[in-house]
TrEMBL record:
This is CAP domain-containing protein. It comes from the Bacteria. InterPro entries: CAP_dom, CAP_sf. Pfam families: CAP. The keyword Signal applies. It comes from Yoonia phaeophyticola.
Length: 159
């Protein structure tokens, strides 16, 4: 897993990615994404198309993994891809597997402080690690979660 850390103004962003098989773990219940307008997916696919990449489709399991991690970070007051003792797994692989997703490749972007989908998209687009994740040719699905101003994007193939 690779980590990238960027301090941009008051925003901290990190990205990680992983390939390989997921191990199934127990999952808790999830709540729907709140405060999302739906423009993120269109913006993401337009960005990918402009770079010669195929579209990614919204995926309910990835949305659940993203939303649960955003909620956990917001409620427990931390900001990391690692969530030791987290109710949905200790890391990205465990959180995604907990939803039942059996991915072949997966990546996660996190952000804090942005107040809109446009702001978080722009922040990720301007960060090399996040940009690389959003443009990953191997990905065919995505899920976006938000809790307060904590954001999580999960991209995967095979979920």
């Amino acid at each position: 897993m690779k980590r990238f850390l960027l301090a941009a103004g008051l925003c901290l962003l990190t990205a990680c990615q992983s390939t390989g098989s997921a191990t199934q773990v127990t999952s808790g219940g999830g709540s729907p994404s709140v405060g999302l307008t739906g423009s993120f997916g269109a913006d993401l696919n337009a960005f990918r198309a402009a770079q010669g990449r195929g579209a990614v489709q919204p995926n309910a399991l990835l949305r659940q993994a993203a939303q649960l991690h955003a909620e956990d970070m917001n409620q427990r007051g931390y900001f990391s891809h690692q969530s030791p003792g987290g109710p949905n797994g200790n890391d990205m692989a465990a959180r995604v597997a907990a939803t039942g997703c059996q991915y072949r490749a997966v990546a996660e972007n996190i952000a804090r402080g942005q107040t809109s989908e446009a702001q978080v998209f722009s922040s990720w687009q301007d960060s090399s690690g996040h940009r690389r994740n959003m443009l990953g040719a191997q990905y065919d699905g995505y899920g976006l979660g938000r809790s307060g101003n904590t954001w999580v994007l999960v991209l995967s193939r095979g979920c």
